[in-house]
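Hello Y.,

Per our agreement to keep a running log of every chain we model this quarter, I'm adding this entry. I've kept the format consistent with earlier entries: sequence first, then predicted structure.
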Amino acid sequence: MLSPANSKIKKILRFCAYVFLAAWLAALILIAINRQAIADWWQLRGYVPPPSVISVANEDTMDAYTKHLFYLNRPQFLPTVASFRSVCPENENTIVLGCYHPVEDGIYIYNIADPTLAGVVQVTAAHEVLHAVYARLSPSARTALDNELENYYQHGLTNPLVKAEVKLYQQTEPHSVYDEMSCTFGTEIANLPPALDAYYAQFFNDRATIVAYEQQYQTAFSSRQAMIIQDDTQLSQLKVQISNLENQLRASLTVLNSQLANINSLRPTSTYDDLQSVVAQYNGQVDSYNDSVVSLQGLIGEYNQLVNARNQIAGELTTLDSAIDTRITPTTQPSQ
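Predicted structure for the entry above:
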């Protein structure tokens, strides 16, 4: 038989074992519940966001949770097509300005330095962090969001540029269309249904700021495109005017040459007074012809001046197009 002392010790040891087991189980449960927070802490250990990253997060009015996801992905702003495409190689023949690597494996953004396109980086950053947001949605929340996105796409979307973007995603990323819709609608459309507005309000303090950035840089393109169309229309009208006046001048010159020949034929047989009226009429028509020549020269000058202005705007548009063109070409192919 065990002595009372030994029996008491055993009970204490058994109690301690139960306490230890309970504590161990509680710790496992706590770790399971907070495994994402622990994983995030581990990934963010030692990371200090650079000032440029903090600045973009603030400019996009990201809330604390969204900044957390943004920083988890350690965003990088890459200045060249080669450096950007080395980490974002997908869709090589499509203009891509950013990419998100799943499971917080990175956000990469093409850093456009042209001040005319200010806002592109901010919109791209917001777009990419929304991928990280979408990835963490619960299955039920994702299904609910997908339904709202589809309903808006089918019945509410009128923006032709966004429609074209969605169609491109349907071709290039058919398995991620809703994910891309969630990022595109939230950063490019000002007026959304209440349910979608409420969704994005969870992640940005002022989503209108992001849309304003998008509209700002889109205007850099659309305003120039509109001016080119307007100039082309005016050039077409001037070309018709110039052509008509040239035809009139050719016809007038034929008449003048005929009248001059007639005057020369009348000189031997006509008196001075008889010729005066004919010559006066002829000189009046010559003056009218010369006035028309001056008008033609003015139209041609106006046409050439407008061509130069139009070509300058077209050059600016080409420069802007080149500034966002990240398609991989033989000259920009990243080295292996």
